Amino acid sequence: MGTRTVIPFGPQHPVLPEPIHLDLVLEDEKVVEAIPKIGYVHRGFEKLVEKMDFNELVYVADRICGICAFIHSMAYCQGVEAVMSVEVPPRAEFLRTIWSELARLSSHLLWLGLMADAFGFESLFMQSFRIREKIVDMLEEMTGGRIILGVCRVGGVRRDVPNDALADIVRRVKDLGVEMHRLADVFLQDDSVKHRLVGVGVLIRDQAAELGCVGPMLRASGVSRDTRTLGYAAYGSVDFAPIVEKDGDSYARCAVRIRELFQSVDLVAQAASKIPGGEVGVKVSGYPEGEYHSRCEQPRGEVIHYVKGDGTRYLQRYRVRTPTFANIPALLRMLQGCELADVPVLVLTIDPCISCTER
Amino acid sequence: MSVFGMSRTIMRNLFSGPATRLYPTREKEPHRAARSRGRIEIDIEACIFCSACAKRCPTDAIIVSKTDKEWNIDRLRCCTCNACVEVCPKKCLAMGNRYTPPTVTKDKDIFRQPPRPPKEPETIPGA
Fold first, then answer.
1. Which CATH number goes with the domain that contains B60?
2. How many CB atoms lie within 10 A of CB A250?
3. Could you give the 3-state DSSP secondary structure of residue B62?
4. Domain A4-358 belongs in CATH node 1.10.645.10
5. Contact yes or no for A69/A149 (Cβ under 8 A)
6. Of A150, B16, B33, B86, which one has the greatest count of Cβ atoms within 10 A?
7. Which residues of B touch A127 (CB under 8 A)?
């Protein structure tokens, strides 16, 4: 047995978009153990709930995380709507679906860019962000916000999009699909990229399920589980199947996310073609009383929003279980036995979103 | 052999010019759909100082003083959620699609309603 060295990784590290600290115990260049430390961006969100009106809390839910902002606010609204038995108009449900898929596109493209940056392919990073910029422009055009959309509210959505504008968006997203294919070819076929991804951080099916992975992490290990199949919002009316890969390595996780890009393009087109007319919101009166677990599929995996109201304008309890939190145990397992040079790639393959996790 | 997967994209980029702007010299045009949430603008002449916007503001960025006929906004607190625009009874608030320019001081934007000319006393004909 060689000498053991502990190397601190993070909370500030060029590859990390957000602060997480790992103590890496090394034997030569091999990682024997990784000890995580989080808590650098804790903001006390669950305490804030006690003094913020449940309608105004949507703005905060929107700001839990910068990348999956819309889906957080949607999950929160779904929770409160279920507690208050509010029926959301179908047009609002479809608009929510379209926006969450565009948010997924933007998030996955961001991840692909960061991943390219992590294995040192700078120009590929730029290409991903060039495509992503067009997606956020579309979101700005429809909702007014680029990242934090601020369009969800309890009882529906705050802005309508005319049908002809939706058709234009679908046409532009499909055009972007061609550019994404070019990007995907580099990610999935380029030898230098494969060299960094294939066989790195393998997580077999049983391990992934046992460690409670969610989202692309779980699907890359061959488990077909996707919260969208529950049919929340308008997912029950569109046709799709979870994307699954078998290998469970970094390359498979990359492939799942790339294939989900095209799935999202298809889902946006499907939802826009089936969208009914009518109102986009109903007036909500009264205060929430009761409890509900709202589940949504974020780009990173399943998010759970637990909402409990006691009949006043302030919620009694509110808790968010984010996908990154569920994926950290799997990250630690993957890090055992890997090379030090692969650590940045492995940390990124779980698509860490620490701000979400700590709230 | 897929080492040259990027070359086609690189060639296209060589001839299509940059995808970015030189920011301080070339600013982004306001969005064509004009829906963009840039910053709150007020038509102070029409304001009745009812404070509905200040009450609805989730970040307490707006302060309204009825006695001084003054409407303040802290641009750094404002999260451009559009709630004040939706609640304004006189529709004197609007969401502009230009962002607030960068600043180095934490000043508030203060809008004061100019004093209205006193109403002419009604003259009773024949008095």
1. 3.30.70.3270
2. 25
3. strand
4. yes
5. yes
6. A150
7. 9
Tell me whether residues A185 and B5 touch, CB distance under 8 A: yes
Domain total in chain B: 1
Q: Which residue of A has its CA nearest to B98?
A: A144
pTM over 0.90, yes/no: no
- In the three-class reduction of DSSP (H, G, I as helix; E, B as strand; rest coil), residue A21 is classed as strand
Question: Does some domain include residue B57?
Answer: yes
What is the interface pTM, i.e. ipTM, of the complex? 0.77
Phi, psi of B124 (to 5 degrees): -85, 120
CA–CA separation, A47 and A250 (whole Å): 37
Q: How far is A183 from chain B (nearest CA, A)?
A: 8
Host domain of residue B83: 37-112
Query: With an 8 Å Cβ cutoff, is B110 touching chain A?
Result: no
Alpha-carbon distance A151 to A214, whole Å?
27
Residue A237 sits at φ, ψ, to 5 deg, of: -95, -10
In a domain, B3, yes or no: no
Phi and psi, residue A318, nearest 5°: -150, 130
CA distances from A142 to A119, A165, A323, B47 (A): 34, 8, 27, 29
Contacts of residue B113, Cβ cutoff 8 Å, sequence gap at least 6: B44, B45, B47, B49, B69, B70, B71
Quick check: is B27 in a domain?
Answer: no
Q: Does A168 reach chain B within 8 Å, measured CB to CB?
A: no
Residue B20 lies in a domain: no
Nearest to B81 among A123, A124, A150 (CB): A150
Q: Along the 359 residues of chain A, how does pLDDT read in single tens digits? A: 678 888 888 788 777 777 888 888 988 888 888 888 888 888 888 888 888 888 888 988 888 888 888 899 999 999 999 998 888 999 999 999 999 999 999 999 999 998 888 888 888 888 899 899 889 888 888 888 888 888 888 988 988 888 888 898 899 998 988 888 888 888 888 888 888 888 888 888 888 889 888 989 899 998 888 888 888 888 888 888 889 988 888 899 999 999 999 999 999 999 999 888 888 888 888 888 889 999 999 998 899 999 998 888 888 888 888 888 888 898 888 888 888 888 888 888 888 888 888 77
